[in-house]
Design brief:
Blueprint (H helix, E strand, L loop, with lengths): L4 H17 L4 H8 L3 H13 L3 E3 L5 E3 L1 H23 L4 H11 L5 H12 L1
Antiparallel strand pairs: 1-2
Helix pairs in contact: 1-2, 1-4, 2-3, 4-5, 4-6
């Protein structure tokens, strides 16, 4: 199943929330992303069916190996692109917003080149 940008955003949000609190539920994702509970519920169902997350009896969301791989990749792109744009002189809020858009469309080749350049 090929994920769309929204699916990647959900996985990244689950990843970030899990890093912060260690426990993530659909309600947490809805609040974090500013989406309605029904929208998050639908997305959770799709991600579960796609094999990207598991949902425990208590409603806890856990990333599968496949989901974690995608979430970590998107989070890395967001983090590095944000910091790179800040180094170029973009303010933090704008840099983060632009990185959020870029992280879903940038090729791996271009991202790797930016990452190498940013590490210098």
């Amino acid at each position: 199943m090929q994920l769309q940008e929204s699916g990647e955003m959900y996985l990244e949000s689950i990843y970030v929330l899990n890093k912060k609190t260690g426990h993530v539920r659909s309600l947490d994702v809805a609040e974090y992303m500013g989406f309605s509970k029904p929208s998050v519920s639908r997305a959770v169902g799709l991600l579960k069916n796609g094999g990207y997350i598991e949902v425990d009896k208590d409603g806890s969301l856990t990333l599968t190996e496949a989901g974690l791989e995608i979430a970590e990749s998107i989070y890395e792109k967001h983090t590095i692109l944000t910091e790179y744009l800040i180094k170029l002189g973009v303010d933090r809020e704008t840099a983060s917003q632009d990185a959020c858009k870029m992280e879903h469309v940038i090729s791996q080749e271009t991202f790797d080149a930016i990452k190498r350049h940013a590490e210098k």
